[in-house]
Amino acid sequence: MFFHASIQWLAVLNVFILCGLFLTQKSKAGPLINTDDVSITAAQQCQLESAYSYNKDGTWSYQVVPACNLNQNLEVSLGYHSSKDQDQIHGFSVQAKSILRPMENDWGVASSLQLSRDDVAHHGDLNWFLNVPVSFQLLDQRLALDTNLGYQHADERLVRWGIASTYTLTEHVGVTVETYNQDRQAPFFQTALQYSLIPNVLTLEASFGDRLHRLKQHWFGLGLSYTPSS
């Protein structure tokens, strides 16, 4: 039943995608977007992403994730995350990502493995998440579509998915529409607006999201992405 409901919401998102086909393509997802794309940082360069989210029930979370490309095709990131729910939770994660098929003929494939540990939620257990991003560029690269399919090994073992459509309205302004799951309940949906103070270097992001369920779980997010120029 849950899988059937997820497919229904993916179909809903496709309507949003079709409504935005006239827009131009945005090249990379923002720090608040859960669905990963195929791209990695350029060789011998680094990037810093940070994000803060505030929920309507007063809880909040934030994360800081620096990432560096150690050679031509290996990006390694080390993240710190913290959240305030019933408990104060914080932890670390490390991720390795590589491109399996570069973006040739308007599509590509990557893979990533993330290891994480929270000091409260999972009692110090080491969790892992194996993910396969697949990206498409359509309509003469005016539309970018990113899809994820992965397996999460944690307290709740789960097949996770995500789909995001990203556009560039101008050189400085971009829009993202996304849906994804994080548990066995109803999936999440969010929209994000990116503003590049310095294109391809410094980008600010704001998002609004909700769970697709009768019990609403609104949240608002702020993010920053910084990629020093070479």
Written account of the structure:
There is one protein chain. This protein has one domain (2-226): monomeric porin ompg (Porin, Beta Barrel). The protein is 8% helix and 57% strand. It has one helix at residues 2-19, and strands spanning 24-25, 46-55, 60-69, 75-84, 88-104, 107-118, 127-138, 143-153, 158-168, 173-180, 188-198, 202-211, 219-226. It has a twelve-stranded antiparallel barrel. It is globular and about 45 Å long. The termini are far apart.
- What is the number of beta strands? 13
Total of DSSP H or I helical runs spanning 4+ residues? 1
- Classify the fold: give the CATH topology: Porin
- CATH uppermost class: Mainly Beta
Rg over alpha carbons: 17 Å
CATH architecture, by name, is: Beta Barrel
CATH level 4 superfamily: monomeric porin ompg
Domains (count) = 1
Describe the oligomeric state of these chains in a short phrase: single chain
What is the spatial order of strands in the main beta sheet? 2-3-4-5-6-7-8-9-10-11-12-13
Shape annotation: globular
Helix content: under 10%
Distance between the termini: 50 Å
What is the mean pLDDT? 85
- Alpha-beta classification: mainly beta
Uncertain regions spanning at least 5 consecutive residues: 1-27
**H/E order of the elements?**
HEEEEEEEEEEEEE
Keywords, separated by commas or semicolons:
transmembrane helix, 1 helix, membrane, mainly beta, Outer membrane protein, disordered N terminus, 230 residues
